[in-house]
Amino acid sequence: MREVIKSGKTVEEAVKAALTELGVSEEEVEVEVLEEPSRGILGLFGSRPAKVRVVRKPTPGEKAKALLEEILRVMSLEGKVHLKEDAESVSLEVEGENLGVLIGRRGETLNALQYLLGLAACRNSSVKKRVLLDVGGYRKKREETLRALALRLAEKAKKRGRNIVLEPMSPQERRVIHMALKGRDDIYTFSEGEEPFRKIVIAPRK
What we know:
Blueprint (H helix, E strand, L loop, with lengths): L2 E6 L2 H12 L6 E7 L14 E7 L3 H15 L4 E7 L3 E8 L11 H15 L7 E6 L2 H23 L3 E2 L5 H11 L5 E6 L6 E6 L2
Parallel strand pairs: 5-6
Antiparallel strand pairs: 1-3, 2-3, 4-5, 7-9, 8-9
Helix pairs in contact: 2-3, 4-5
Organism: Ammonifex degensii (strain DSM 10501 / KC4)
Main location: cytoplasm
Protein name: RNA-binding protein KhpB
């Protein structure tokens, strides 16, 4: 439910009833006063309650989904957008055919789109959520590739006894590498450089 109209003795009472029905806080809605309360004559005749229309604002996830669907339309791409949203994050996944243009070389376009959707989702909102975007299961496949790469390069660094520097990656992909090698007593990882050229270094323990 996105909108309700409620009445009450006061505007505040009517708004409170609407918020209860919608299950949201006042920061998440827009309120329009349709009728101010009136006590009538001597408070007995012609009295009128307050009436308000309360509309729930789109959530960050809904805003991101709407923008993504518009991008697909403008690019003449056919894809279905699935949305999952909780208190901390927004997850968007696009399913369809011939969507490689949304991914780009090693996910560069996908990461740029994710950043854009993150900005749009939290614009003019006090609620800040992390936005995650995937297309055709690319990120899961990429994570598997990165984990295998991390293990292979860790063995290489240990065998050669020197650091190995990977190519620049997004924060999300760097985290996959860090987590794949976390807790090892023969190898450790750290990041160096500035975004968007920040890199992971895999180093053997002395």
